[in-house]
Amino acid sequence: MSTVLFDPAHGSDRSADLLARVQQAIAERTPLFIRGGASKTFYGRPVDAQPLDLAGHTGIVSYDPTELVITARAGTPLRELQAALERGGQMLACEVPCFGDNATVGGMLAAGLSGPRRPWAGSVRDFVLGTRMISGLGTHLRFGGEVMKNVAGYDLSRLLAGSLGCLGVITEASFKVLPKYRCRVSLRQAMPLQMALDKLGEWGQQPIPLTAASHDGSTLYLRLEGNEGSVRAAAERLGGDALDDSYWDDLREQRLAFFDDPRPLWRLSVPALTAPLAIEGEQLIDWGGAQRWLKSSADADSIRQLAAAANGHATCFTPGVVDSPFQPLAAPILRFHQTLKRNLDPQGIFNPGRQYADV
Amino acid sequence: MNILYDERVDGALHSVDRAEFLHTLQSRLPDLDILHAAEDLKPYECDGLSAYRTTPMLVVLPRHLEEVQSVLRLCHERKVPVVARGAGTGLSGGALPLEKGVLLVMARFNKILEIDPAGRFARVQPGVRNLAISQAAAPHGLYYAPDPSSQIACSIGGNVAENAGGVHCLKYGLTVHNVLKVEMLSVEGERMTLGSDALDAPGFDLLALFTGSEGMLGIITEVTVKLLPKPQVAKVLLAAFDSVEKAGRAVGDIIAAGIIPGGLEMMDNLAIRAAEDFIHAGYPVEAEAILLCELDGVEADVHDDCERVRVLLEQAGATEVRLARDEAERVRFWAGRKNAFPAVGRLSPDYYCMDGTIPRRELPHVLGAIADLSAEYNLRVANVFHAGDGNMHPLILFDANTPGELERAEAFGGKILELCVKVGGSITGEHGVGREKINQMCAQFNSDELSLFHAVKAAFDPLGLLNPGKNIPTLHRCAEFGAMHVHHGQLPFPDLERF
Ligand SMILES: Cc1cc2nc3c(=O)[nH]c(=O)nc-3n(C[C@@H](O)[C@H](O)[C@H](O)COP(=O)(O)OP(=O)(O)OC[C@H]3O[C@@H](n4cnc5c(N)ncnc54)[C@H](O)[C@@H]3O)c2cc1C
Ligand SMILES: Cc1cc2nc3c(=O)[nH]c(=O)nc-3n(C[C@H](O)[C@H](O)[C@H](O)COP(=O)(O)OP(=O)(O)OC[C@H]3O[C@@H](n4cnc5c(N)ncnc54)[C@H](O)[C@@H]3O)c2cc1C
Hints:
Chain B: Keywords: FAD, Flavoprotein, Oxidoreductase. The complex is a heterodimer. Chain A is α+β, with helices and mostly antiparallel strands.
């Protein structure tokens, strides 16, 4: 490869310091609040603890486009990762939100959030191949690796995805990456929500190269990605007006006008074809119906019941509105969260209470 | 070191009075099918790794969830180990029974509960065969993507427990990428749901943790899988090469060009000849390696990609590139590959299938090293390779009736796996650790990492009753295994008590 994709000398390995800090915290039983770029501090419950900053532990460790794998230290800015991938003509297919310039690779994995392409391409957890982590037993470990398939032992790397730093400190992660699509077309069509959901159900059974579908109450927004031939043919078939591709970035980064509404922001994760949810407030549909953003001053219990009745769950994205932003867990599942946390972090030093008060 | 359960290094197992236990089980569950006579137990002595056999204490074949719950409760009460079994096609001894344990066969849970074409999911019982899901979804133009070569026989419960792959997983993912929700029973028989009908669930991703956990964390009682629309067209290119290196390089070139094939498989000369003899797929038997590259999707895209790939293959030095002319020829090309294991089985009384993964760039080096080992151990090897995702299946040919050959094959296999670890790969890409690779786990993970695995296991099964001895070796086993591989006079686990 003639182009330089990344500079292996850029960045620094602080894992020895981080390990020493964790070992000290275990010995003294002083909780730590793990911080990446702190771009997502609003997400989850507040943690009252000594910060453990990953921001200095940076650098892309390896990237070989023909292997479809990139490995980076946890504090590496997402922007740096994305720039390297861009040079290699590839992408993180799960289209992660950055929420500012500071978001890190470790924070992305720990938050586990995915963008509009999620239902078609997969989530962050689907693309993580391996991790290095500092455990609550004071050890620095490696799970998974840089290969596509690996079923040796339990899949700790995927367990860490979305764990919000409650099970250990991620120091390094490897991801499967994919070539960027050759062609992309975005479209908009005026259409009521129920009709849009019906259409999406129908199109979903056909080989149409959809990679995003959103609805704001009156308009359906679609994105097609693939090779020239299939994208052009599908665009012609589906019809609609041209839409600027930046719509999807604004949706992912929560920059659309919808997000300016002063009411609390909720995320409802429900089966995609769930009929329009009747509740006070405004809704913005992403993930082809499977992710519904809600701006509402309805009480948390009603919102949670609504989500649960649809076989889904609700998360509050606005800090300080509810004590538990995440949907409460069923009793046996909660108990296994507690035993898992206790076994992996016996002194309870990692982000105590960040996800749930009693985990 | 024998791989059968060894209480000395794998941990003591509780003993119960067999007759009394059987009697209690019969009286609590009068309708439950229980096998206990020696001749009835025989078919359950092994899974697909038939070189290793153990007679279970009892085999139970429940039909109702409540029966599974009661069996689990009784076993928990009496501290009797439980080994789950699906269709028993596993190749790593994951469903190998225990003399002191109950073998819980889930194969009778074989109903497809729901196919939702608009929602694009299927809800099925764990004993449903992998292929049966795609067949049931076919009238709606949908299918279930992961397609292990054993798909006509293996169960979806076993697929989830092994995180099974197939020839299409570079593009469509492994089992873990295609499962939405799993209903489970804990070791104490408590019901729980992992994942959800939506695309995610609150809390830790226990669904991901349980996928591939080899029956060690709970019993799978229902699975909801994702269905995909069938690609409009699929085309297969067959390319012949006069060296394995060139074929390996061609794989990298295809991916570097931004093309992700639906399937990308490689076979070496011995595998090509074996498959050709058996299936008459039309393979070029003189080639040192062939690549099968399937491109699927929408007509126009597939056409473009076929042209691109053909040029790349020719530039990489292919001696011949053939496009399957029609569907019949496409199916024949694949049949050769999908029957490679039985085909190789015809060359030799026994074969031993390895499952290591490596970064693709290491392919020429690793194949070269395998050829050297083959000479050293004096055993032939055929190579079949999920080339797109670096998953190798070297098949070691041996004759178990020739004294010492099985042991030589095992030792050879162990060396291949250690080689995979050394180049940054893994000892298993899809068949699982089971009992077979329990010693090689000591090469892939250090004692700190194994300790964390044990901590995970203890969170769900503190008494260690679910499938003991599989998947994660005890530190004692690794100490003994390590003692046999002393490097520079240094034991790998110096801090451990020796036995
Ligand atoms: C307008 C706006 C909208 C936002 N919307 C969302 C949203 O929808 N979803 C969302 O999740 N976030 C959201 N965030 C916040 C956000 O804080 C993200 O989750 C982000 O990608 C995390 O990257 P980071 O490096 O900044 O992580 P941080 O914010 O530093 O950390 C995120 C979480 O991961 C943990 N963590 C970080 N690094 C590691 C590590 N190396 N090992 C273990 N744990 C670690 C932290 O303890 C924390 O719990 C939003 C922020 C803004 C400003
Ligand atoms: C010819 C041949 C080709 C093969 N090709 C492939 C391939 O291409 N890709 C691939 O991945 N595998 C392949 N395999 C291996 C095997 O088919 C898979 O591992 C399959 O997933 C096993 O399913 P099973 O139902 O037979 O499970 P079993 O062998 O019965 O069990 C496998 C494991 O799953 C556990 N288990 C089974 N059911 C349950 C349950 N309900 N709850 C909890 N645990 C359970 C068992 O305890 C055991 O650990 C092949 C096997 C053969 C014989």
